[in-house]
């Protein structure tokens, strides 16, 4: 039988979850203050922050957002309607498209990212050199 976990472990995990939830609540509120839903903000950040490039396929985006492909396509549609992202043909696969952030989307994302970085610094998770 495994030895029981110490009280310190439970306190650490509880505090960690509390801090995550508090940050997420902050993030959700910040997105809404800029006229976006939290999912729209996550989509923009996932596209612009994709490793090594500034575009993604819907499948890659669905994985990053941890939602179904169908739900992701709907979210892309809504973001495209308000000109936050664009689709373009994938030159490597004619059955696929690539999603990119528009200038309008980048403006909103830049504002939100600055707000988020300030909050991350304030709570002590990130320090500038």
UniProtKB/TrEMBL annotation:
Keywords, in A-Z order: DNA-binding
HTH marR-type domain residues: 2-129
A GO biological-process term: response to stress
Matching InterPro entries: HTH_MarR-typ, MarR/SlyA-like, WH-like_DNA-bd_sf, WH_DNA-bd_sf
Coiled coil: none
MF annotations from Gene Ontology: DNA binding; DNA-binding transcription factor activity
UniProt superkingdom: Bacteria
Protein name: MarR family transcriptional regulator
Protein species of origin: Robertmurraya kyonggiensis
């Amino acid at each position: 039988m495994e030895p029981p976990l110490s009280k310190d472990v439970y306190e650490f995990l509880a505090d960690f979850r509390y801090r995550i939830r508090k940050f997420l609540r902050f993030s959700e509120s910040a997105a809404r203050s800029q006229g976006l839903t939290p999912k729209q903000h996550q989509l923009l950040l996932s596209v612009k922050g994709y490793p090594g490039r500034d575009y993604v396929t819907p499948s890659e985006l669905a994985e990053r957002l941890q939602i179904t492909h169908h739900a992701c396509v709907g979210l892309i549609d809504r973001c495209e309607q308000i000109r936050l992202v664009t689709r373009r043909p994938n030159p490597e696969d004619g059955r696929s498209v690539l999603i990119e952030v528009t200038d309008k989307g980048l403006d909103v994302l830049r504002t939100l990212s600055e707000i988020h970085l300030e909050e991350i610094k304030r709570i002590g998770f990130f320090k500038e050199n």
